[in-house]
Every structure is written in structure tokens, then in C-alpha cells.
């Protein structure tokens, strides 16, 4: 279904969708030193702030009214402080308190909100200053430009966002249907065509689209064939669901936009309520399939490279994140094997309820 606002690109719609909450959202000045700024500028053909100003002029975004700004910017305790200063009744829910304050002192409340936004702008300037060169937003502010804004979608804005979400969901559904029917190539090209239209550049940390497509082409079939021993005992039906969800995850490597493939994020919809019979949570079980896929693909790549002779397995020790290897994984930690003999990951004897988090490191010296 085409979007009925031809003057806005898909990327513009995605940007607008950030404000789709019927709840204020803060828009910062443009930080041209930021990678996020550059990718949006490529996708939009203008900066984020320029697009936001056009949304405001077109009535798709609106400034939040003062009561909503009060609700957004102040805690209940702070609002009660305002009541006390004005000798007003202290009781009631937040929305009632906001209403009481705004009725009693609209100008004072508007000033209080302006202070909060000014403080947010000052924090942004402080953060932006950490980069070497002055950003576009900072330069605009120095010339007297507007700082942080508190915005939300208008009704027409919400309608445009809803249309965009439908387009995105339809793409996701089409890709998943193709995946389900075994037509991996069509699943990949569906996502790629959508991403091309969105027009985000490739993150320097991520593979370019043709490389990402190659990765997906290798990973999707591996996901459908995955059978990690750590999941033994899981019924074939449930394994089928987990494999399908893992294959869908592998497609998200193709997504470069801000929503990163959330239209087919499978851990939310596809695996909720599955009965694996394991101690592991469903998300961890899904992750075990993805781990096996990644490990097998890495091993194939290393074999093709020929210089990799050995593989070292390492357990993850991150007590700060609550990650400690189980006994079995701790015993693997730091050991090396010839590439043909390395144990499969995820490690089949792992007993962690988060699943095995061990990683493999290729070693190029001959062993
Ligand atoms: Zn373990």
C-alpha cells in the first residue's frame, strides 16, 4: 500500500514515527559530529532538525501543550512543591495536580517548563562539546537558534505514522512468508528493496548491503538446519518455531534503518509461550540456535581462509553483568583445538540457564 503523502519519504515517516506516542518527545539540535546525524542526513536528504521543522510547518508535529510539558518535565514531588509555593491543595493524582497548577498559574508554569528545556539544551551542549569540531546544531545555537523542543504527533501526523507502520509490517510479513515457504532469496530481496527505499547508509561497523545479503544467504539455511545438542529434548514442533525465529533474526543483518528490523523481531511474537521443557528461557534457547549458526558460518569462513589452523574457545566472565561461566564452560576457557576438532558451540555440556555464552577465536599460527 503506497503512503498517501507523496511529499514525505519512507525515511521521513520513520523519523516521524519516533514521535508516535501521544506523549511528548524531546528533539535535540543537530549534532553533526554524530554518526546518527550523518545517517539520517543521507536518508532524509536534509538534517533531522530541518525535517522536524518541516513537520512542524506541515502540522504533522506540534509543540506539546504546557500541561503535558509539566507532566513530562517534573516529578510528583516537584509539582507538589509548586502547589505549596502557590498555597494550593496538595492532594490528587499527577494529572489533577498538573491541571490545578496550570489553571492557577499558566504563565508561571510555562516559564518553569521553559527552564527544563533550557537545561536539557545546556546538557546537550555539554555533551556535544566533547567532539573536536563545532557541530551544526551548536553553530545554529550560537547564532541564536532554538534548542531542545518538546514535540508530539498531531492527528494527521499519527495517521501518516500509522500508514508507515502498515507498510513496514507488510514488508515484514512478506519476508517472513517467503522465509516460511523456503524462498530465502525472495525474503532477502524483500528486505533489501525496503532498505534501499529507506536509504540509510551502511554503518561503518556493519557489512555493506551486498555483503549483508551474502551473510544472510549463508545463515538462513544454517538456521533452518540447526540442531544444537544443548537443545536436545526439545520437541520437533518447538524446534521448528525456534529455527524459524532464528532465520528471521538472521534477516535483520540486512536492516540499516533506525528500527533495525523491528517489524519482524521474532523474540517478541514468534517464541512467546513456546514450551521447550528446558530450564533455559525461550529467548536463550533461540539464542543457542543463532550461536550455532554464527559458529558454523565462522568455521566455514576460517576453513576457506586457510591461514586459520586452530580455534580457541573462551568463556565470558562478566560478573558485573551477572555473567559467570558454568563449570563446563570454565573448563573450556582458553583451550585450543585444530579447526576440525573444536567442540561445537554452544557447548553441549553447558548448564547455565542463560545458555552457553562461549566465543571462538581463530588462531592463525600453525599448531
Ligand atoms: Zn556454560
Descriptive key words:
367 residues; elongated; binds zinc ion; 3-stranded antiparallel beta sheet; single chain; 15 helices; mainly alpha; 3 domains
Task: Summarize the model shown.
With 367 residues, the chain is mainly alpha-helical. The protein contains 15 helices and 6 strands.
Cα-based radius of gyration, to the nearest Å = 26 Å
- Morphology: elongated
Largest sheet: 3 strands, antiparallel
Helix/strand structural class: mainly alpha
- Along the chain, the helix and strand elements come as HEHHEHHHHHEHHHHHHEHEE
The end-to-end span amounts to: 58 Å
Strand content: 5-15%
**Could you give the count of β-strands?**
6
Total helix count? 15
Mean pLDDT figure = 89
Number of domains: 3
Strand arrangement, largest sheet?
A: 1-3-2
Ligands bound here? Answer: zinc ion
Poorly predicted runs: none
Care to describe what's here?
This protein has helices spanning about 10-15, 35-45, 50-55, 65-75, 75-85, 95-105, 105-130, 135-140, 155-180, 185-200, 210-225, 235-250, 265-270, 280-305, 325-330; strands at about 25, 60-65, 150-155, 310-315, 335-340, 360-365. With about 375 residues, it is mainly alpha-helical. The chain has three domains: about 10-155, no CATH class; about 165-305, no CATH class; about 305-365, no CATH class. It is elongated, with a radius of gyration of 26 Å. It starts with 9 loop residues before the first helix and ends with a strand. The model has no long low-confidence stretch (mean pLDDT about 90). The structure holds zinc ion (ZN). Zinc ion binds near residues 328, 347 and 352. Zinc ion binds next to helix 15.
Amino acid at each position: 500500500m503506497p503512503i498517501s503523502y507523496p511529499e514525505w519519504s519512507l525515511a521521513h515517516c520513520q523519523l516521524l514515527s519516533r514521535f508516535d506516542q501521544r506523549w511528548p518527545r524531546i528533539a535535540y539540535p543537530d549534532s553533526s559530529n554524530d554518526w546518527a546525524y550523518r545517517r539520517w542526513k543521507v536518508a532524509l536528504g536534509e538534517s533531522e532538525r530541518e525535517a522536524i521543522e518541516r513537520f512542524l510547518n506541515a502540522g504533522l508535529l506540534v509543540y506539546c501543550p504546557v500541561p503535558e510539558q509539566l507532566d513530562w518535565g517534573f516529578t510528583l514531588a516537584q509539582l507538589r512543591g509548586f502547589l505549596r509555593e502557590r498555597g494550593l491543595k496538595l492532594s490528587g493524582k499527577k494529572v489533577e495536580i498538573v491541571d490545578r497548577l496550570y489553571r492557577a498559574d499558566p504563565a508561571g508554569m510555562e516559564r518553569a517548563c521553559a527552564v527544563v528545556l533550557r537545561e536539557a539544551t545546556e546538557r546537550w551542549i555539554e555533551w556535544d562539546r566533547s567532539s573536536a569540531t563545532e557541530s551544526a546544531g551548536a553553530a545554529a545555537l550560537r547564532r541564536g537558534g532554538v534548542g531542545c523542543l518538546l514535540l508530539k504527533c498531531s492527528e494527521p501526523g499519527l495517521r501518516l505514522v500509522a500508514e508507515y507502520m502498515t507498510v513496514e509490517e507488510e514488508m515484514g510479513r512478506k519476508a517472513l512468508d517467503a522465509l516460511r515457504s523456503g524462498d530465502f532469496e525472495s525474503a532477502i530481496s524483500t528486505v533489501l528493496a525496503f532498505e534501499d527505499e529507506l536509504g540509510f547508509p551502511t554503518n561503518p561497523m556493519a557489512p555493506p548491503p551486498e555483503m549483508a545479503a551474502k551473510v544472510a544467504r549463508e545463515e538462513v539455511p544454517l538456521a533452518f538446519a540447526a540442531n544444537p545438542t544443548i537443545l536436545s529434548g526439545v520437541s520437533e514442533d518447538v524446534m521448528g518455531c525456534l529455527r524459524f525465529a532464528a532465520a528471521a533474526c538472521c534477516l535483520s543483518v540486512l536492516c540499516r534503518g533506525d528500527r533495525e528490523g523491528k517489524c519482524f523481531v521474532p523474540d517478541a511474537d514468534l517464541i512467546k509461550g513456546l514450551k521447550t521443557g528446558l530450564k533455559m528461557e525461550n529467548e536463550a534457547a533461540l539464542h543457542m540456535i543463532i550461536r550455532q549458526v554464527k559458529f558454523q558460518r565462522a568455521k566455514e569462513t576460517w576453513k576457506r581462509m586457510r591461514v586459520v589452523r586452530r580455534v580457541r574457545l573462551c568463556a565470558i566472565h562478566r560478573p558485573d553483568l551477572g555473567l559467570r561461566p558454568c563449570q563446563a564452560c570454565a573448563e573450556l576457557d582458553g583451550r585450543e583445538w585444530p579447526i576440525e576438532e573444536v567442540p561445537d558451540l554452544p557447548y553441549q555440556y553447558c548448564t547455565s540457564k542463560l545458555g552457553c555464552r562461549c566465543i571462538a577465536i581463530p588462531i592463525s599460527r600453525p599448531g
